[in-house]
Fold:
Amino acid sequence: MTKINKAACIGGGVIGGGWIARFLLAGIDVDVYDPHPEASRIVGEVLDNAEKAYAMLTGAPLPPRGKLTFRETLEAAVAGADWIQESVPERLDLKRNVLTQIDAAARPDALIGSSTSGLLPTDLQRDMRHPERLFVAHPYNPVYLLPLVEIVGGEKTSAATIQAAMDRLPPIGMKGVHIAKEIEAFVGDRLLEALWREALWLIKDDICTVETLDDVIRYSFGLRWAQMGLFQTYRIAGGEAGMRHFLAQFGPALQWNWTKLMDVVDLDDALVEKIGQQSDEQANGLSIRELERIRDENLVGILQSLKGGHGGKGWGAGKLLKDFEQSLWAAGGGEKTPPDVARPLRLIDTKVSPAWVDYNGHMTEHRYLQVFGDTSDALLRLIGVDFDYVERGHSYYTVETHIRHIGEAKLGQAIHSTCQVLASDEKRLHVFHRLHDTASGDVIATAEHMLLHVDAKAGKAVAAPEEVLVRLRPIAAAHAALPMPEGAGRHVGQKR
Ligand SMILES: NC(=O)C1=CN([C@@H]2O[C@H](COP(=O)(O)OP(=O)(O)OC[C@H]3O[C@@H](n4cnc5c(N)ncnc54)[C@H](O)[C@@H]3O)[C@@H](O)[C@H]2O)C=CC1
Ligand SMILES: C[N+](C)(C)CC(=O)CC(=O)[O-]
Structure:
C-alpha cells in the first residue's frame, strides 16, 4: 500500500478539521494553514471529538498520533507535504487563488486534492502551472468517520495522479471512488441536492414538517441505504425477478407527477438493459434471497447499535426498538403459563444475531454474558424487580460471574437459557444459568452469578423488601430440591 508521509491542510474548518483528524489519527504529520484567528481551537475541538469516536470505533492498535503544526503561511504549510488538501470556502475565485499558491510552493510530486462539493476540477486547475496533479477529493462530513472520497479529475489531471490518489486512501481507512466524468456536484451531492430540493418543496407546501420528513428518512430507507445503496435495494424490491421486473413495474411512475423534478429520463429498452446488466454484475452471483438475508443481518446490526445510541437511551429507530422491547417485557410476552418452579426456569429464547458472531464464525464471548445478563433480568422481572421497581431506586447488581464455554453457537442458531436458583437470602441471590442449543437441548455454556440487592442511590447493598422476597422464596425452595448443577462452584483452572 502506498502511504502518505506528510500532509498539509489548507483551511481548517468543518471539512479541513475532519481531514486533519483523519490524517493525524492514521499517524501522519499534518501542517495546517488557516488565517482564522481561532483555527487552532476549532481544529482542537474537532480532533477531540474524533479521538473520542475512534476510541469507541475500534480496539485495534492505532499508530502514534501524527504531529499537528499550525503555520503562519500557506507556503510553510505545504513545504515537504506529499498530499495537500485544500478545504477553503466554496468560491471558485478563492479556490483558484489558493490552488495557484499551493502549486507554486508545493513539491513537484505532491498530490493536490480539493474538497470542493461541486466545482469542476477543470475550472479549478485553470491557472495552475502543474495542473496534472490537481484532483477533486470530495469527502463527507465527518471526514474522520465517513470513509468515502469521490476522486474526480479535470481535463488536465493525469491518470497517474488519479491512481496515486486512489492508492493512498485505504491506508487512512478511506474508500476512493473514481468518478468517470467530471460533472458539477459529482455523484453524491447530485443525489443529495435532488432530495433536498424535493424536501424543500414538501416543507413549503405544508405537506409535512422537517421532523416528519427526517423521520421518514431515518426510520425507513435511511437504514437501508447505510448498508446497500439505491440500486441493490431496488433489485431486491423486484422480488425473484429482480431489477428488470422492478424497472418494468415502477418505471412508468417516473412519468407521473411524483416529484417536482420532472426532467425525467427516458427509460427506454437500452437503459433498462444497461441497468439490468450492471445490477447483475453488482450482485456478484448472490440470489435475491441471499441478498435479502444479508440486508436483514445488516439492518439487525444497525438497529441494535442504534438501540445503544444516545448514551444507552437509544436513538431514532433504535429507541423505538428499545421501547418496543420494553413494552413486550412489560406485557410478559403474551399469554404464558406460570413457570414450572420444580425445574430450572426457561427464561430466554432467542437466536444468534449477526452482530454477535466473531471472526471465528461463532457467537463471541461477550454476547454470552449478554444472554446470561438477560436471563438474570428475566428472573428479576419474575420476582417483581421490573423497570418501575428500578425507577423507584432499588435493584439487584451482579457482583461476581463465572462463565464456562462448553459448545459453540452459530449464526441464526436457536438458543435458550434456563436459571436455577442455588441460594438466596435477604440481600443475596446466587444463580446458575445454562445456555442450550434449542434443537438438541445440549448445553453450550453455563454461568454462575452472585447478585446483591441494592439501594441504587445510596450505592450499597440492602435487604430486599418483602414484596420481592415473597416471590423469590418459593422458587428458591423448589430449586433447593434439585441436584447441584455440574460445574457449580468451579473456579478457573480447577482439575476435573
Ligand atoms: N461542510 C460540509 O458539509 C462539506 C463541505 N465540503 C467542502 O469543503 C470545503 C470547505 O467547507 P467547510 O469546511 O464546510 O467550510 P468552513 O467555512 O467550515 O471552513 C473553511 C475554512 O477555510 C478557512 N479559509 C478561508 N480562506 C482561507 C485561505 N485563503 N487559506 C486557508 N484557509 C482559508 C476559513 O478560515 C475556514 O476555517 C468547501 O469546498 C465545501 O464545499 C465538502 C464536503 C462536505
Ligand atoms: C452540503 N454539502 C454540499 C456541502 C454536502 C457535501 O458536500 C457532502 C456531505 O457531507 O453531505
Summary: The chain is about 40% helix and 20% strand. The mean pLDDT is 92.
